Amino acid sequence: YVPDEWEVAREKITMSRELGQGSFGMVYEGVAKGVVKDEPETRVAIKTVNEAASMRERIEFLNEASVMKEFNCHHVVRLLGVVSQGQPTLVIMELMTRGDLKSYLRSLRPEME
């Protein structure tokens, strides 16, 4: 992985609380400085890769971020940046304030009688 215009300095990211377990590691809520134009600070989801992850898993984690760089659709969660320098590697995503889609849809489902 070669750092590019998506690279964010680690000191611009602050993690605040765990949101849950992702495919590669924990996902946290946090704040990122300067990742969205005209917003000094943005609430974000921060995906991490497990410290015990193999090199292959780390590469897959970064490949997932690389694929997300190509998406620009309001129906898809946006990639906001990547922190590839140092450990752990971080993928900075748009925060879905109502949680994941599956849980949100289930909360709207009428209760069974």
TrEMBL record:
GO terms for cellular component: cytoplasm; plasma membrane. Its EC number is 2.7.10.1. InterPro entries: Kinase-like_dom_sf, Non-receptor_tyrosine_kinases, Prot_kinase_dom, Protein_kinase_ATP_BS, Ser-Thr/Tyr_kinase_cat_dom, Tyr_kinase_cat_dom. It catalyses: L-tyrosyl-[protein] + ATP = O-phospho-L-tyrosyl-[protein] + ADP + H(+). GO terms for molecular function: ATP binding; transmembrane receptor protein tyrosine kinase activity. Residues 13-113 form the Protein kinase domain. It is a single-pass type I membrane protein. Keywords: ATP-binding, Glycoprotein, Kinase, Membrane, Nucleotide-binding, Phosphoprotein, Receptor, Repeat, Transferase, Transmembrane, Transmembrane helix, Tyrosine-protein kinase. It is found in: Membrane. Its main location: membrane. The keyword Metal-binding does not apply. ATP binds at K47. This is receptor protein-tyrosine kinase. The lineage of its organism: Eukaryota, Metazoa, Chordata, Craniata, Vertebrata. The gene is IGF1R.
